[in-house]
Amino acid sequence: MTEERFHKTEFAYWIGIVGNIFLAALKGLFGYLSGSKALIADALYSLSVAGSSFAVLIGNRATKHQPDEHPPNTHGKAESIAAIIVSIVLLIVGIEAGISSLKAIYYGVDSPPKAFALIAITISILIKEAMFQYKYYLGKKLSSQMMMSSAREHRKGILSSFIVLLGVSGALLGNYLGNIAMYMLDPLAGFIVSMLVVNMGYRLVMESIHQTFDRVLHDEDVADLLRTVQVVKGVIAVDHLKAREHGHYVVVDIKISVNPRISVLEGNDIAKTVKQILMKRHIHVSDVSIHVHPYDAGYPYKNNVDPEHETFPSMLH
């Protein structure tokens, strides 16, 4: 990805992270002061969305800033393990919030939440919608499916806030009508949102575990990569191509054959060209390792070999 594209993407993710952390703090505070279990659960949901965005941001940074002195993906694996720990914490907290809501439903609720809880819910809906519109617009502009998918998490967050809105409003309406049974709507909404948090935590755990281990792509998945390498001028044959998926990016290992009569420097230039073209045409490719071998002189060369190479001094005999 280009430098400008990377910075725009990173900025959008930081907006999502900071925005959801702010909402988590706001709803957590208002939920505690108003006595709304639903609002506290929604605060946890915002925190889980922030964690999800942070995991994606880490993956993008690892793709762009992989140190040359370290083997590919070692940093990505460490970051994935950290994401697993955070996800498990969210999973446990979500379960605890759900149990707390169930206890409130079982033992009964003496009073509804305070009316000012509606302020935090309204602010939450407005901010989540604004974040969705911004990230979805930027995702379409950059043709980034990952960005648009992240934007949809904000839209799902709006759904959780609407559930809380219904629960708190129903409990307040019950107080107005003198119907104590309607007080249960607040912890009921809290339980539903807690299950959304648990689902989010579980999904993050599974995605992080998947990212921790390399997955070798199938033949049909590397067909485009292979075709890209085969048409590069100077590449006679692709002897080996293996692509390993790690999280949101791919690392490619290639062995190519070149004219044995060209110099080592020319062979190195061909390898550089292959790497540049692969990473330019396939933005999900973050690193390419290339091994250059002389083509077997007993076989005819392909047409993509420059005839002028025949006149160059050879370092291979």
UniProtKB/TrEMBL annotation:
Domain called Cation efflux protein cytoplasmic: residue spans: 217-295
Residues passing through the membrane, by range: 12-33, 39-60, 81-109, 115-137, 158-177, 183-205
Entry superkingdom: Bacteria
InterPro entries per UniProt: Cation_efflux, Cation_efflux_CTD, Cation_efflux_CTD_sf, Cation_efflux_TM, Cation_efflux_TMD_sf, CDF_Transporter
Cellular compartments annotated: Membrane
Protein's name according to its UniProt entry: Cation transporter
The species this protein was found in: Paenibacillus agricola
Keywords associated with the record: Membrane, Transmembrane, Transmembrane helix, Transport
Domain Cation efflux protein transmembrane, residue spans: 14-209
Family: Belongs to the cation diffusion facilitator (CDF) transporter (TC 2.A.4) family.
Membrane topology reported for the UniProt record: Multi-pass membrane protein
NCBIfam families reported in the protein's UniProt record: CDF
